[in-house]
Amino acid sequence: MKPVALLSALTFALAATASLASAAPAPDTVFDYTTPVSWPATPKLHSVPAAFGDASAVTVLDERSTEFRKEGDGFAVYETFHKIIHIRDDKGIEMFNKMYLPVREGSEVSNIKARTVTAAGKVIDVTPDKIKSTTEDGNEYRQFAMDGVEKGSEVEYYYEQKRPFYLFGSEFFQNGQVPCVTARFLLISPPSMQFSAKGYNGFTVSPDSIIADKRIIVGQEENIRDLPEEKYSFRDQYLSRVDFKLSYNRSGDGVPVRLYTWRDLGKRAYAFYTTHTDKEDKALQAFALKLPEPTDTSLGGRISFLEDYIKTHIDIDKKLTSADGDQLVQVLTTKTANDEGIIRLFARLLLWEDVPFEIVLASDRSGIPLDPDLEDWDRAENVLFFFPGTGAYMDPTQDGTRYPYVRPNLAGGRGIFLKSISLGSYTTATATWGMVPIAPWDSSSLDMEADIRFSGGLDTLLVHGRQIMTGYGAAEYRPIYTFLPKDKQDDANKDIIKSIGNSTDVNNIAVHNPHMTDAFHNAPLVIEADIRCPDLIENAGSRLLVKIGEIIGTQTEMYQERPRQLPAEMPFPHKEYRTITLHLPEGYTAKNLKDLNMDVSYPDMGFTSSYTQTGSDVTVAIHESYRTLRYPLEAFDNFKKVINASADFNKVVLVLEKAN
Question: For the chain, which end, N or C, has fewer CB atoms within 10 Å of the first or last residue's CB respectively?
Answer without folding.
Answer: C
